[in-house]
């Protein structure tokens, strides 16, 4: 009922697990683990549709005892460490659709019961509103009755630093890297503005230091966020030697898999671990180094940030700070928010453009914005307070600028169905 990660194949274990299995067999540093493949249990779709008991969610429906026992055996074989439990869906990590951040993932899970619950929740997330909305607008656009989910269970890497790199398909091309302290969700979920590195084919490194306000680390059976010290906030996460090692690692992944690759990585001690690799689904905007943090002057009507997704859009700003604001977003609005949690994906079907206060060009939100072909400007300090709600703004995702104008007098439209 479970498959060792080193034996995982895309056809039975999904894109994420299948690719990591291939890289493990090729000798890359991939955290050890196992996979619950497609079709286990065989009536998983029946479980999804089963009505849970009052007061319990769909994810609380018990798993078969045989599967729980198999999970316990798999964990014992790993030495019962804290693990990451992650989705590996059939339409995830493909050349057409990344499904970046659309399904549930859990870090620092420990013990068979906790892992069983996390597996069940990953399965349930296959049909969550955000995943369904993503598939509906995806280039792959698979029918719902054909959606399938495997689940990957791996040793958790207690990372000193983590991030994402985009490795080019052509040898000698430029590698883009983003990095922050601690575990990877800080970068991929856009909760910090990470350091950005650009490694040219000749090995030259260009750096923009980001605003790394917080970090995530494992504390027992859980993950905690703590403030980053002032010294570390302004200190580059990576030295030039490690940056070049990452660029070389990215090129090795390209040689193994073919095509430009989006690689999530973690640094623990001297080891660079690969946590995920998938095809790049949309080109990055042009990159140019700039002082960080960018100087802001709301008085002149122009704010600057990181170009996240090409193009320009004009419309009323809609300030969204949490889920309670979702119903205020209307078609054609410019979404202005602290960061974009993956659960906010349905808003990207409605908004004409996106502005965030934190985040980098390799975050999940930026990837989805590029797939949706809507402009995005990321890491604009104070955007939610500097831009008045309802004011007309122009977002230029190629130059990384947000230009504010006058308040709109258009009567409120009915809220969008998000």
TrEMBL record:
Residues 60-282 form the Pyruvate phosphate dikinase AMP/ATP-binding domain. Residues 390-410 have a biased composition (Low complexity). Keywords: Pyruvate, Transferase. Residues 216-236, 285-316, 389-418 are annotated as: Disordered. Its EC number is 2.7.9.2. One of its GO terms (molecular function) is ATP binding. Residues 330-400 form the PEP-utilising enzyme mobile domain. InterPro entries: ATP_grasp_subdomain_1 (IPR013815), PEP-util_enz_mobile_dom (IPR008279), PEP_Utilizing_Enz (IPR051549), Phosphohistidine_dom_sf (IPR036637), PPDK_AMP/ATP-bd (IPR002192). It holds the Pfam family PPDK_N. This is Phosphoenolpyruvate synthase. The lineage of its organism: Bacteria, Bacillati, Actinomycetota, Actinomycetes, Micrococcales.
């Amino acid at each position: 009922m479970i498959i060792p990660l080193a034996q995982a194949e895309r056809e039975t274990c999904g894109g994420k697990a299948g690719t990591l299995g291939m890289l493990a067999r090729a000798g890359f540093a991939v955290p050890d683990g196992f996979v619950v493949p497609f079709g286990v249990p065989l009536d998983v779709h029946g479980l999804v549709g089963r009505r849970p008991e009052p007061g319990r969610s769909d994810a609380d429906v018990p798993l078969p005892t045989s599967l729980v026992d198999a999970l316990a055996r798999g964990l014992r074989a790993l030495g019962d460490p804290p693990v990451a439990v992650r989705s590996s869906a059939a339409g995830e990590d493909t050349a057409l659709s990344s499904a970046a951040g659309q399904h549930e993932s859990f870090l620092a899970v420990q013990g068979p019961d906790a892992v069983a619950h996390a597996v069940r929740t990953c399965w349930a997330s296959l049909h969550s509103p955000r995943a369904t909305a993503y598939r509906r607008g995806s280039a792959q656009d698979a029918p719902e009755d054909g959606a399938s989910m495997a689940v990957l269970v791996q040793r958790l890497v207690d990372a000193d630093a983590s991030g994402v790199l985009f490795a080019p398909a052509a040898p000698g091309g430029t590698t883009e890297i983003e990095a922050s302290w601690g575990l990877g969700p800080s970068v991929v979920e856009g909760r910090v503005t990470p350091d950005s590195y650009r490694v040219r084919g000749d090995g030259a490194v260009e750096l923009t230091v980001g605003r790394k306000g917080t970090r995530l680390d494992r504390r027992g059976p859980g993950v905690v966020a703590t403030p980053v010290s002032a010294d570390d906030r302004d200190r580059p996460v990576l030295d030039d030697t490690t940056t070049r090692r990452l660029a070389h690692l990215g090129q090795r992944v390209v040689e193994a898999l073919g095509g430009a690759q989006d690689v999530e990585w973690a640094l623990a001690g001297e080891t660079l671990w690969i946590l995920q690799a998938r095809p790049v689904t949309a080109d990055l905007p042009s990159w140019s180094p700039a002082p960080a943090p960018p100087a802001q002057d709301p008085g002149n009507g122009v704010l600057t940030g990181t170009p996240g997704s090409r193009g320009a859009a004009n419309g009323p700003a809609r300030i969204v700070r949490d889920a309670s604001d979702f119903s205020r977003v209307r078609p054609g609005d410019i979404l202005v928010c602290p960061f974009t949690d993956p659960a906010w994906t349905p808003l990207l079907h409605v908004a004409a453009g996106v502005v965030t206060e934190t985040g980098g060009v390799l975050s999940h939100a930026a990837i989805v914005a590029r797939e949706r072909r809507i402009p995005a400007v990321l890491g604009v300090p104070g955007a939610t307070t500097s831009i008045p709600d309802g004011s007309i703004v122009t977002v230029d995702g190629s130059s990384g600028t947000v230009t504010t104008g006058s308040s709109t007098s258009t009567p409120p439209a009915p809220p969008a169905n998000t």
